Amino acid sequence: MVNSVILxxxxxxxxxxxxxxxxxxxxxxxxxxxxxxxxGLIGSTGFILYAIAQGAEATxxxxxxxxxxxxxxxxxxxxxxxxxxxxxxxxFFTGQWWFIGDRESGDYIPISSVxxxxxxxxxxxxxxILTLVLALEEEV
Amino acid sequence: MATGGVEVPRLAGGPAGxxxxxxxxxxxxxxxxxxxxVADGQxxxxxxxxxxxxxxxxxxLLDGLSLTFALLITGIGTLVTxxxxxxxxxxxxxxxxxxYLMVFMVGMLGLVLADNLIALFxxxxxxxxxxxxxxxxxxxxAKSRRSALQALLxxxxxxxxLLAGMIMLGSAAGTFSLMEIRGMGDAIRxxxxxxPILILFLAGAFxxxxxxxxxxxxxxxxxxxxxxxxxxxxATMVKGGxxxxxxxxxxxxxxxxxxxxxxxxxxxxxxFASVLAIRQTDIKQVLAYTTLMALxxxxxxxxxxxxDAIKAAMLFLVVHSLYKAALFLMIGIVDHETGTRxxxxxxxxxxxxxxxxxxxxxxxxxxxxxxxFFGFIGKEFLxxxxxxxxxxxxxxxxxxxxxxxxxxxxxxxxxxxxxxGRVPERFADxxxxxxxMWIGPFLLGALSLFFGIYSDIPEFWxxxxxxxxxxxxxxxxxxxLFREVNDAFILSMITFAVGFVLYLxxxxxxxxxxxxxxxxxxxxxxxxxxTLDGLKVLAGWQTNLLQSGILQRYIxxxxxxxxxxxxxxxxxxxxxxxxxxxxxxxxxxLFKHWAILTFITAGAILTALTGSRxxxxxxxxxxxxxxxxxxxIFSAPDVAITQLLVETLVVVLVAVAMLKLPHLGVRTDxxxxxxxxxxxxxxxxxxxxVLVAVLQSDLDLRLTEYFGETSWSEAFGRNIVxxxxxxxxxxxxxxxxxxxxxxxxSAYALLRGTxxxxxxxxxxxx
Lengths: 140, 766
Hints:
Number of strands of chain B: 2
Helix content of chain B: over 70%
Radius of gyration of chain B: 33 Å
Radius of gyration of chain A: 18 Å
Oligomer: heterodimer
Shape of chain B: elongated
Shape of chain A: elongated
Number of helices of chain A: 5
Order of helices and strands of chain A: HHHHEEH
Number of helices of chain B: 33
Number of strands of chain A: 2
Structural class of chain A: mainly alpha
Strand content of chain B: under 5%
Strand content of chain A: 5-15%
Distance between the termini of chain A: 10 Å
Strand order of the largest sheet of chain A: 1-2
Strand order of the largest sheet of chain B: 1-2
Largest sheet of chain A: 2 strands, antiparallel
């Protein structure tokens, strides 16, 4: 924890921006540079910044869930998105797609099990890094 | 215990309780619907593609053998879970117990149903692990923990051998499907791998089914709660090895090594275990050893391999599962109500617990092999198969005769002794166990009688189809109670006479046996402890040797190995057999390339020269960022972003960790610096040479083209890197993120573990 007014003030703004940006990177990943891994890294940076400015305890409060639980939930989501395909007669981890809207005109939102897999990756990376950083911070 | 006035007749244990009963009951009904088709000779195959690109399918093979097992697992499972609602329903950890039991049931069903060898192995290990958790359920007892670990290590080692055997069998047969392998028996028996495959498979089967000399874990496993003993360590899991041998009989069986390995190990185990059984004073231990006897007999008769022997083995499998589960559950009720299982203490409980007595008596009569019970038919067929065996008939018949006599005695010890006679005063207030507890043993005991009288029912639905599946072709199975006075029948009568006489003198025999066994110098259990201690000493020695605890030395060893390994390979493969025009290459570099190069080099030099850790780590970060810039120039934005973020995180992590470390201060390893510098230069030069060598050959772009073409058309994504990660290669990514989680959790445990270091000392004292 660092007692710096500038860092404290900047952190409040930056954490929000970083988290929003991390979700943006996650969602655009399928077509443009980004994805769950990068998104998770960016998201965790936000909270690491917060931990440096406000301390580990405040970060745990802000997170609301234990980071190791977040990582486990992410792993569960990734697994579920893979198993999901099995119920439709496809092989394990075959992507399943739903196109909400009109595909012909290109006015649609594509949703897929692959997206959920990427969300799982995001949560795993996010949770694992914060598990490490917060434990290290508290140890010091 | 729950406090309350009136006891309402309901299932204890809450939702975990009734779910644990409903799940196996529904599965039992589901499997029962396949009975007609299987009895008709069909083998329904139900499956889905799992990893089609690796030819791995999740497939269920339902033939007579697997269906018989599946019905035993789910049927006895229902009764045992019902029993547990009362036996353990008030235990604070009861839901955990139910979870383990359900995991085991799924594993065991998978084991007997799997068509793929690898799937079979995975389920095999699931049963091993859930057995470990269940034996060690009362984890505050050092004895439970030791028994659990022993079972895990022994059956786990066997499991590894089995995996090796399966891979060899798979490569010998060219397929991992049991259905296909079954038809290739002749080719496999002639294959050069046959003997190694056989040894490895038997190592797996013998440890799992506790054949001599791996028998000692099973009696120790009785540290588990009684329902677990009845279910895992008698009726189902320990028969996993028997299942494997039966399943492999058409493939690996019928040769001399197979015959002698199984007949000798099985015969010896069956006699050895029944002698030890009558020596015990704890009735649960008596039953544990008689289970060993049954496993030995099954091995013996599967090894004998004639159609009669297989028939007898399959018959005895069903017979034994019924009566033994009932007896275990019975002694659990007695223990629950009286608080003891000692032969010497228990007397005259028949009046106090009439239904439990009835259930136990039905099962014990079947175990003693008295007509008209199912056990009698089982014994008759074992005798008949032994007497008619072409090879080693005398050994087989002798073993099974000795075991049957002792079984008769054991039946007397475990039921007649505790229930008959006068009630001692200390049991004046003992009463019958609760209904959910006696239903199981009662039903199983009654079935032992019912199947004896109506023997065409088990013959048609269970034993017949199972025998066909194990023998590999149709065998006529015709079960009967009594047809004529033949050799087997006369042998049965002699069994009863000798068994009865021995039972009358069992106290004296036990003492005599006790003296002999104490005098015997070879003891397996203490031997096991010594082996483990020896392993720990060895592990300690090699850890001290290799793990100095000095990070610098580790890194030195790692990089030295890298440099030598790669360097020698380059030299041996003559990989530097090319010329490059260095001047032309340098001419091709633009200003931005030079700039980044300078940036990286400056960072590297600073890292090497600085005396401050903080400066060093930041300088290393500069190198990393330089590399990220390179990625951007060569249009790999995803990799560049990742590299940048990881570099940032590493600097943060190391900086945080560094706060704990002492200042570098004066270097104490000044003398080593020339060596370190040489190593660094060597690694750098060799890596460069490898990269240059790689670039000399033409890059194979087929994969890049494939992904470029298909990522939009098949996976609806334009970012190839991401599409590969989350779609084409999702299974790999899944493995990687699992590793990330495990690494994070391990680091967390390490960081936190130091804080609670005192817990371990407390645990050891108990």
